[in-house]
User: Which sequence fits this backbone?
């Protein structure tokens, strides 16, 4: 049950920030998502900060995609903490109503996600020394990582395509998500094959 909750939180946070990044960069801001603002790039261009806003959007896409695909929940969850805190400070300083509360809830969800991986943090705190054994997770393959990377690359590639053909861009983004999910299948096939070969 706890694993399903962790997976659900990862997918929800991933969808939230992946969509928030994509909608900022897509043509006409025509992408799915429920938090914004989608016009951030245009607004910050007035202050010569358009490139910074695009950088933030790409970071949101990357972190969100890590969590949405659930392949890199730990890394994505760690990277999401400073992302949320920075956005929270901006919304508080600009006196946005309601948004700080939403971000606080998202931060609490992310901290819960990170708590499930707390055994990984002792080696970081102790700089290599691990007081307790790490819980075993499923093995990953290099080809699975490459499959996920191809899916992430399609997300970024779909952005300029959206200015030419919106439906093609949507298709590329969807294909990227499918590839990221299939990366787990690649792991199962390749690692299972390796184990069978070692037994022979």
Assistant:
């Amino acid at each position: 049950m706890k694993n399903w909750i962790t997976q659900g939180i990862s997918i929800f946070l991933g969808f939230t920030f992946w969509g928030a990044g994509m909608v900022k960069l897509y043509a006409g801001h025509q992408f799915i998502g429920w938090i914004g603002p989608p016009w951030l790039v245009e607004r910050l261009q007035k202050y010569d900060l358009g490139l910074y806003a695009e950088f933030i959007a790409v970071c949101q896409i990357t972190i969100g995609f890590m969590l949405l695909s659930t392949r890199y929940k730990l890394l994505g969850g760690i990277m999401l903490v400073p992302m949320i805190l920075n956005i929270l400070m901006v919304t508080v300083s600009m006196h946005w109503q309601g948004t700080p509360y939403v971000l606080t809830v998202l931060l609490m969800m992310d901290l819960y996600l990170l708590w499930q991986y707390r055994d990984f943090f002792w080696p970081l705190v102790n700089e290599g020394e691990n007081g307790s054994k790490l819980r075993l997770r499923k093995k990953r393959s290099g080809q699975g990582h490459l499959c996920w990377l191809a899916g992430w690359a399609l997300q970024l590639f779909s952005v300029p395509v959206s200015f030419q053909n919106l439906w093609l861009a949507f298709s590329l983004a969807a294909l990227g998500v499918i590839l990221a999910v299939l990366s787990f299948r690649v792991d199962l096939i390749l690692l299972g094959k390796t184990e069978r070969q070692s037994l022979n």
